[in-house]
Amino acid sequence: MTLATEAAARSEQTAPAAAHLLEFRNVRIVYDNAIEAIRDVSIAVPEGGIVALLGSNGAGKSTLLKAMSGILYTEEGVIENGAIRFRDQEVHRLAPDELVRRGIVQVPEGRRVFPALTIDENLQMGGYTKTAAEARDRRDKVFALFPRLFERRDQIAGYMSGGEQQMLAIGRALMTDPVLLALDEPSLGLAPLIIDRIYEVIAKLRDEMKMTVLLVEQNAQRALDIADYAYILETGRVVLDGTASKLSANEDVQEFYLGVSGSGRKSLRDVKHYKRRKRWLS
Amino acid sequence: MQYLIQLLISGLAIGAIYGLIAMGFAVIYKSTGLVNFAQGEMTMIVAYIAWTISTTVSGNVFVVAVGAILTAIVLGLVIERVVMRPMLGEPVFATVMVTIGLAVILRSSINFIWDAYPHGLDLGVGRDIVRIGDIGVRTGQMAVIATLLLLLAAVWAFFRYSKFGIAMRAVAADDRTALLMGISATRVHAIAWAASSVIAGIAGVFFAISYDLSPAMFQLGLKSFPATILGGLDAVLGSGVGGLLIGITENLAGGYLGSGMKEVAGFAMIIVVLMIRPFGIFGERDIERV
Question: Is the backbone of residue B145 left (phi > 0), alpha (psi -120 to 50) or beta?
Answer without folding.
Answer: alpha
